[in-house]
Amino acid sequence: MRIARAAVSVDLKNVTKSFGRTRVVDSVDLHVEPGKLTTLLGPSGCGKTTTLRMIAGFQEPDSGEIYIGGRRVDVLPAYLRNTAMVFQDYALFPHMSIFSNVAYGLRIRGVRPEEIKKRVTEALELVQLAGMENRFPAQLSGGQQQRVALARALVIQPDALLLDEPLSNLDAKLREAVRSELRDIQQRTGITSIYVTHDQEEAFSLSDTVVVMSEGRIQQVGTPEDIYYRPANRFVAEFVGTTNLLSAVVLTAQREHVVLAAAGTTLVATSPGRRFAPGQSVLLTVRPESVHIAATVPPAGEEHRGDPGELNVLPCQVVKTTFLGSRSRHTVRLPDGTPWTVDVSDPGTATMTCGEAFVAFAPERTHVIASEALGGTPASPG
Amino acid sequence: MELSAGKAQRHTGRHNRTLTRAGKVMREPALVFVVGGSVALLVVFLFLPLGKVLAMPGAGDWLSYFETPRFVRATLNSLFMAAISTASATILGFAFAYAVTYAEVPGSRIFRIIGLLPLMSPPFVTGLAFILLFGRRGLITWTLLGLRPDIYGWKGLWAVQTFAFFPTAYLSISSVLKAAGSNLEFAAVNVGARRWRVFRDIVLPLATPGIAGAALLVASQVLADFGNPMLIAGDFTVLATESYLELITNWSPARAAVLSAVLLVPALVVFLVQRSIVERRSFVTVTGKPIQGTRMGPVPWLKWGLTVFCLAIALFVLAIYGVVLVCAFVKTWGADFTLTAYHFVMAVIRGRELGNSLMLSAAAAAFSALFTVVLAYVVQFKQVPGKAVLDFAAVLPSAVPGTVLGIGYVLAFNSGPLAMTGTAFIIITFMIFHYMAVGYRTASGMLKQIDRGIEEASTNLGAHSLRSFWSVMLPLMKPAFTTGLLYTFIRSMNSVSGPIFLISPTWTLASVSIINLADHGYWGQASSLGVAVVGSIFVVLGVARFVLGEKVRLFEI
Q1: Residues 427 to 466 of B: which have CB under 8 A from any A CB?
Q2: Please, what CATH class does the domain formed by B56-285+292-324 belong to?
């Protein structure tokens, strides 16, 4: 599909929106790269949908500015913004054929009929619905309806494509298929896209950039890998996937290596790009699949590719084991009482029994966050 | 990308706020116009007349109410008639609904249609038919039995109102019985309940709020009815007829207004109670899944009893139309039954009443349907201040008896800047605003089912609000538009209580003429006009169904 315009950036500057006395979006600054897919990820009520709707123009910010391609749009009505939205419930016009649904935006723009026909056909081919022109939305399956909604949005060559949980009404299998198709189409068309979801797997698999939001504020902006392995704060660490936390005190901090005192022993952790002072209280985070567990000490050295001397080892008590097929999950208790989750992939029949055991994890799989950064942001609300 | 910085841009923020606020009004000038226009129309054509009714009488006029025994008597009569007619019409309606919806007696399909017929014709046709059947020259009483009973009075009126309004109760109750859950019945049977217990313990309690709602609907119609009391009540005066007498015969607008205000009180009480019952009725619909499997019918002897009952009712309804039809084409009812077209030619062909009725009703229906659809859209979909007030104002007219609003129109528009008595315009506006509630409610109900995203999608694709309304919302609301259109048309064609104050020598209406002709004993001509009114309504409904190519959902509200 031809894209007439060059991809443009979307910028939010200090955007705030309240409903009654609740600040739904709180001083959000955001830069969305041209041509990239950026996801707003967060639990329900975190302000992600409101942010999207403010970009589309369905809600007005109380303060702040919104720019699309350097043009200020928050003072423009929704119909002049040239954004195109794909709605959660598709929002297809039930009284119009598929062709008319897709053609609607072009007709409003006064495009010549023959040009409309050509572009609608192209758009329907792009979403693999060629030949469905004369059907009506009610005659299509959920997945097909969603693709019509996408075609309707793409055909107007919007400056920004806005997607509001577009896959949430599809069943799990279909969701995965449409997801990869969506990513494919976005990359081919190169339209700047903003995607809202509460599903992290969706966010990770689709996005160039993930923006994690909570309580109206941006918690972290980064690549999916950044978000997963290097969460900025406790909220992100806990919201995204399952994580293990351990309270610790910094002993020494040299370049990327931080030596911590925790659970009655000394641990080595890495924290690229962050500075910690000796004596500071911090939280060590490590993902369940990054932790090894064994009944005897020391755990087999060959599992760790680095220097065996740097492997962190802690004694623990196995409280519960659950067989999940591709992996087994262990709930353990560290010496200071902290519960951790440890996953063993490809467990076979060798399951851990409850009782004494040891956990081990490599420093480069750990991440250190300030313990006071509990979902807050640097600036206080005052 | 960076985390938010907070304070730095406060000043910009405030500046920005004023910018967007100013932009918002400019953004939707059409909305401002529509809201402003709707409010203005409702104020002028609904609240001003009602206000006049309440504000016009002085203290002396209010006192005269208590000092005049016939006023107090009319009030008591109104309440008494409403009470007994509501009771009898609701019982009859319930039995009929139970038979055709729940027990599904043989012939239910036909009974259902016959049960709805009276809703589409004027209530006073029933009154007319009663006189033709049981009056001094009645077919049954005089021609067949040679009796000369006096049906003019409260007993006659009671019988007439029972038959005129049982269809309202039937319709309303049958929709409730349809919904009151069959799965619950099976559950009850499953734990050992017998048929009668299932009905008593499950169906009836679930249907009770609906039945109460139906009864109140009947009560408000009986309270407001003017035609039948005028025809058949004789010395038994009610508020509607008494206030007519005060205004037209005694030309005492102030005292007519007092009587109207008194009539408004029970009407509003009934309306508010009914509204709150309907709003609380949610538990019926929660379990109201479509019926799967057969329901627990009544025992055979009851079923056959009900069949006979339905047959009797159906035959009676058909008899009502039959005698009016025959009377329209015979020389002198009760004396000379030779066929003649004389009455029909005199009343329908030569007279212009039917033409007037059709023209004014059509005009009112078109405007009313459009207005209510737009109003419902604005109230349901737009962020406008005072939505709740607009919503209430739109359904309020259904609570106001036509007599009250009609007298209000006379008081408000007789002189001054809005003087328009004697014109077609005053009759049309009366019809529009008196019958707008059903169209509005239907449109509102439909809009509640329409996903907001659909309109947003249209806006998002570049359509401004008028365009979105025109090309997306209006087509989606077509069924509501049709309902509003046909309902207003039918009610306007049948309307007597308000128009009787508003007609002029140039602008007479068929419905009012029927009452006047019957009142003076011109049975043939009254019947002819009645046949013409009922006939043209059926023709219009048939055409509507053909043109729109869909089932007209007129009475499923």
Answers
A1: 451, 453-454, 456-464
A2: mainly alpha
